[in-house]
Write a sequence for this structure.
């Protein structure tokens, strides 16, 4: 898992991925600029072409994405400029892990089958998927053991 920020550990009552739909839209708009800085105004204008959204809302979401470690903010010519702090592939990987863990209890093969991916993968990709499943299973086992040890320790006190 990533140690960039709190985005990949959703709070109780939030989306499985730790990201809301507007956060994803704004992140995508920033990523689409290929690492170039962008301003709140530019992102707001882009979103307005698709739907109604308040400038203050875009500004707040950008600040939240900075707080979550997904964007970097610098002041340039009196304006805040934003750029990605995390690659889209990394975020996609973390979101997919969260979905597989939440809905498929970490069973990557079952998730791939239900998503229709298994038949579209070549042997190398299938092996990578199997390796990822083994890694997730070992992480889940380690968490289970740690949790059991903590409960045992608490019971002894």
């Amino acid at each position: 898992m990533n140690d960039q920020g709190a985005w990949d550990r959703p709070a109780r009552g939030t989306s499985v991925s730790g990201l809301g739909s507007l956060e994803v839209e704004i992140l995508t708009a920033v990523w689409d600029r290929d690492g170039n800085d962008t301003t709140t105004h530019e992102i707001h204008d882009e979103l307005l072409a698709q739907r109604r959204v308040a400038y203050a809302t875009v500004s707040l979401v950008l600040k939240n994405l900075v707080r979550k470690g997904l964007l970097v903010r610098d002041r340039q010519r009196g304006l805040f400029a934003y750029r990605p702090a995390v690659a889209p592939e990394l975020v996609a990987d973390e979101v997919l892990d969260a979905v597989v863990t939440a809905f498929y209890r970490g069973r990557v093969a079952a998730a791939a089958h239900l998503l229709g991916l298994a038949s579209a993968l070549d042997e190398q990709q299938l092996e990578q998927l199997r390796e990822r499943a083994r890694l997730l299973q070992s992480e889940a086992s380690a968490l289970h053991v740690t949790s059991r040890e903590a409960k045992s320790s608490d019971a002894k006190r």
About this structure: The mean pLDDT is 78. The longest strand covers residues 71-76.
